[in-house]
Design brief:
88 residues; mainly beta; three-stranded antiparallel sheet; two-stranded antiparallel ribbon; 1 helix; 51% strand
Length: 88
């Protein structure tokens, strides 16, 4: 767990739909999470999933996978990913 600017980050808290690419520092801008930050390993030049802080992460109510809010559909107070929403 890492604390940065008052936000707690967990390496496992990744959106299952988002990937970023390029050489990135530990803390870079993220267009997918409301706080605008994600954490990756230093100077990796590979595809990396977007890591969401504890405040920004959301999960599908059915499959329990973690997604950014932009990749979830809310209905009746529950969140659904595209795959689970299409099965309803």
């Amino acid at each position: 767990m890492v604390k940065y600017n008052g936000y707690m980050y967990y390496k496992a808290d990744i959106c299952n739909n988002c990937c970023v690419r390029g050489k990135l520092s530990d803390f870079e801008e993220c267009n997918h999470s409301p706080c605008g930050k994600y954490v990756i390993e230093s100077n990796q030049s590979v595809y990396k999933p977007t890591i969401l802080c504890i405040k920004c992460k959301n999960s599908c109510s059915v499959c329990k996978k973690i997604f950014c809010q932009r990749h979830l559909n809310s209905s009746g107070g529950r969140n659904y990913c595209e795959k689970c929403k299409s099965k309803m």
